[in-house]
């Protein structure tokens, strides 16, 4: 037997039509549309403000300047791209920055990932002070950290140079990786690992085949952040560099006599590589979801 038929519930569209029919002369929410337009314009203004220095950097790599000062637009040219290695000191500085950035990123990613997993998964004595020290390293002024590191190296009799720059960059960037990985570990579904162990997987297999793929987006994000922090750091590097010159230190020294267009080109290339890596990471992460 079939029961009494209940009346169909009105849909939202039907309710909206009924409201418009009830008030045919009423305006169609002008305040919301103006708000949307203002928000749209405000968003584009913020994006333009953020990208304006990058656009200027890219444009002045094509500037046909006839002096050492590359601050006035004098025409379009591609000749500087063919003379990218005209300054050997600049090339050495860029290679130093890339080498230090890659080495510091590798060490930081390993240490930060292990620290993030420990903080996100386990409860142990000293966890509170560890969190405090980690966030203190993030919030400490670079000037204070650089001076402290210089005092430490001088007290220990360590000669500042390439190795001390790497140690300094690992010190101030490991906390960023740990925070990123810990956030990923906290949001991870632990029942998947339990299912893997119930099916006979060992601890190492469970970590490598289940845990690591799940935290990989956080690890990659932390590594990219560590590399970005390392390659453009100036303040801490200035204290711990000794005779080693990096890309930011070379630019700072060249400002007094004029920054050549090759600096803009190298900055453009570094920015382009970062964008490509970020896009690949984003696309890969979406495909895993």
TrEMBL record:
The keyword Transmembrane applies. Gene3D superfamilies: MetI-like. The chain crosses the membrane at residues 38-62, 98-120, 132-156, 162-185, 206-229, 235-253, 265-284. SUPFAM superfamilies: MetI-like (SSF161098). Residues 94-281 form the ABC transmembrane type-1 domain. It is found in: Cell membrane. GO terms for biological process: transmembrane transport. PROSITE patterns: ABC_TM1. It is a multi-pass membrane protein. Pfam families: BPD_transp_1 (PF00528). One of its GO terms (cellular component) is plasma membrane. InterPro entries: Bact_Polyamine_Transport (IPR051789), MetI-like (IPR000515), MetI-like_sf (IPR035906). Keywords: Cell membrane, Membrane, Transmembrane, Transmembrane helix, Transport. The keyword Cytoplasm does not apply. Its main location: membrane. Residues 1-29 are annotated as: Disordered. Belongs to the binding-protein-dependent transport system permease family. CysTW subfamily. This is Spermidine/putrescine transport system permease protein.
